[in-house]
Write a structure and sequence with these properties.
This protein is mainly alpha-helical. The chain is 79% helix and 0% strand. 29% of the residues are buried.
């Protein structure tokens, strides 16, 4: 896998999950939140859509920039707190149900891709 491919696949995770949040926030609330936290009020749909728009923005930026080994390494490190978020809001405060844990799947996927991209970028510059 090339560094560019890893970068594009990371962008795809942001574009897919972020696009879902941006364009179908009520669906995200209905499918990904536990019953106790499921509220499809305007402000909640708006908040989920805002989250999605930021994810889409980052996904688009990941498509148009070129990451080097340092970029992948920094991204991997900055991704680590999101694992705490997923654990906290699935185990400690059960907001996310099993569908909501798609966020964890996306984070694991991006972490693996960041490591692969880092390795490929180092090899490409060597």
């Amino acid at each position: 896998m090339t560094a560019r491919t890893a970068q594009f696949l990371i962008a795809a995770v942001f574009l897919i999950l972020g696009g879902w949040s941006l364009f179908a926030p009520a669906s995200v609330i209905e499918l990904a939140f536990t019953e106790a936290y499921r509220d499809s009020s305007f402000i909640n749909r708006f908040t989920i859509a805002c989250f999605g728009s930021q994810a889409v923005l980052f996904g688009l930026m990941a498509l148009v920039t070129r990451w080097n080994a340092r970029s992948f390494a920094v991204f991997a490190v900055l991704l680590l707190p999101f694992f705490v978020f997923d654990w906290w809001f699935h185990v400690r405060v059960p907001v996310l149900n099993s569908v909501g844990m798609l966020d964890l799947v996306g984070n694991v996927t991006m972490l693996v891709l960041a490591v692969l991209g880092w390795r490929a970028a180092r090899a490409e510059t060597a």
